[in-house]
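Worked Example 4.2. Consider the chain below.
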Amino acid sequence: MSSIQLIQVTPNELADLISENVKVQIQNLAKGLSEINTPQEKEIVSRKEVAELFEISFVTLHDWVKNGILTPYKIQGRTFFKRSELMQLLINSKNA
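Applying the procedure from the previous section yields the following structure tokens:
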């Protein structure tokens, strides 16, 4: 990771730098996901797989569900998510 010196940087410039870095990270994640999303990929993924995919904790995953960011699907008491909806979330966040 390169170092950044914040000498004579306005708050708006700092916000722009952070925003640009976040966009690049999201684009890289989306690109990586699109490369692994092949036809043999399963459409339904578990909570564990979602947490690993987004590199988040189960607590954060629960908060995302609670706040309506992700839609869970219950099958025999287990929680799953649709891969297509996860990919759409990434695409939408990339365009934001």
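The domain at 42-96 is CATH 1.10.1660.10 (Multidrug-efflux Transporter Regulator; Chain: A; Domain 2). The two ends are 25 Å apart (CA to CA). Compare this with Example 4.1 before moving on.
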